[in-house]
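Quick one, tokens below:
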């Protein structure tokens, strides 16, 4: 009765949290299984950024309640942002949930599950739930474990060649639309030496690419370390990770435009392992709406950042976040967003229709935008993005791109990897190339995927 499945909703931070929980559980003797049908314990790691994300997780938990009625010893837990946001009130809607754990208590999950299982064995009535959403000092330092190679179902998976590394948690930005400060708490950074040590250990295990994670990753260490020679703590960390033998690529997410000072822009020119891909949240192209959102930059400053990055890396790839239908957004405001969106020529974007998040300043604003208007604006940006992405991919046809071979694709028949610009690629290859950087000639492209053929001298692709 120790088989655990973790289902993750939301961002890469949540994925990393789930991975760390799985690793901690495994060291406690739990078995991590890939199928929710085969588990005795099911943990939902949840998201609260949008109401739709919460409703999706609530619907899943409600569906699983029927399983609990069939199997009273089955344990259902809700972790993460929705747990932090709603706490014990979730039990009013989901009385069958056994465990509710907030974002600063992930490391307590193994102990809580031990207690629940012991209570079941002792005959304590089902319905005695554990709820812990309290703050905990230094909780940012607990997300450091990674699954071992044989962690899932006792079957050794393909070699792990990329990994997420949590460097900072929490947010002090107080954007009017965002619930993250409530669900993740105040800004907290991990010690730089600990992060570098984690990356070194990953490199020793064969990881070639690391993605540094934080709610506002570019704010890393600003209260804990000094600027040295005009270099921010975040760029100092990039330099140290860059020096690690075995690490071939570095990415990071999510930054804030405020963090793109000259030292970070110049880092793209002098740190070749730093991939030419930037996720740069715009949110709106209207200065009036940016002020209402409490975003401390203008459309002009945002465009300056994009231009400065393309000046040092002409082939830089960009993705962004945009919210349409923020309260009070007029047609003129949206036209300004559309114009800036087109001018920046994004390769990828996450376009959200504004949704009310209770407890945020924007929830109380007048002039909420009708759903049909939000949908029309959403579709306008999606069509621009589709054309931009196709145009950018078409330019790559016939060129040779460096690809990190990650493993088999979803079909199991071919292999997949990513370019330095974070484009997904599909190709024929030999399993021995997993973890290698290989040249790939691009032969075909869809909106989101490149297809190609290896041109590595002396190595034949699998037939």
């Amino acid at each position: 009765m120790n088989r655990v499945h973790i289902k993750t909703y939301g961002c890469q931070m949540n994925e990393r949290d789930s991975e760390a929980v799985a690793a901690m559980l495994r060291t406690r003797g739990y078995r991590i299984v890939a199928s929710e049908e085969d588990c005795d314990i099911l943990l939902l790691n949840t998201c609260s950024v949008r109401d739709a994300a919460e409703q999706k997780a609530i619907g899943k938990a409600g569906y699983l309640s029927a399983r609990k009625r069939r199997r009273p010893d089955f344990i259902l837990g809700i972790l993460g942002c929705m747990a932090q946001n709603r706490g014990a009130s979730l039990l009013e809607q989901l009385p069958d949930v056994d465990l509710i754990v907030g974002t600063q208590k992930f490391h307590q999950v193994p102990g809580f599950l031990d207690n629940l299982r012991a209570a079941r064995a002792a005959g304590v009535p089902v319905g005695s739930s554990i709820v812990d959403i309290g703050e905990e000092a230094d909780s940012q330092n607990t997300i450091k474990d990674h699954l071992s190679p044989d962690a899932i179902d006792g079957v050794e998976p393909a070699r792990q060649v990329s990994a997420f590394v949590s460097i900072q948690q929490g947010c002090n930005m107080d954007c009017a639309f965002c619930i993250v400060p409530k669900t993740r708490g105040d800004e907290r950074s991990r010690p730089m030496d600990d992060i570098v040590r984690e990356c070194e250990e990953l490199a020793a295990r064969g990881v070639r690419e690391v993605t540094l994670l934080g709610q506002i990753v570019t704010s890393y260490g600003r209260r804990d370390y000094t600027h040295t020679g005009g270099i921010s703590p975040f760029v100092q960390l990039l330099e140290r990770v860059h020096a690690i033998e075995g690490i071939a690529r570095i990415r990071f997410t999510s930054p804030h435009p405020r963090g793109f000072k000259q030292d970070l822009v110049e880092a793209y020119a002098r740190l070749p392992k730093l991939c030419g891909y930037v996720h740069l949240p715009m949110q709106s192209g209207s200065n009036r709406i940016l002020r209402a959102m409490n975003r401390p930059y203008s459309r002009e400053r945002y465009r300056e950042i994009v231009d400065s990055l393309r000046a040092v890396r002409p082939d830089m790839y960009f993705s962004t976040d945009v919210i349409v239908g923020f309260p009070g957004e007029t047609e003129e405001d949206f036209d300004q967003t559309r114009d800036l969106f087109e001018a920046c020529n994004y390769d990828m974007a996450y376009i959200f229709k504004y949704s009310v998040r209770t407890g945020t300043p924007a929830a109380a604003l007048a002039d909420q935008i009708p759903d049909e208007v939000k949908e029309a604006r959403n579709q306008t940006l999606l069509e621009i993005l589709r054309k931009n992405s196709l145009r950018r991919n078409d330019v790559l046809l016939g060129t040779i791109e460096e690809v990190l071979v990650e493993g088999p694709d979803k079909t199991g028949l071919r292999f997949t990897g990513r370019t330095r610009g974070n484009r997904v690629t599909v190709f024929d290859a030999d399993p021995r190339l997993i973890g290698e950087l290989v040249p790939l000639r691009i032969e075909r492209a869809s909106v989101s995927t490149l297809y190609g053929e290896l041109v590595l001298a002396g190595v034949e692709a699998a037939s």
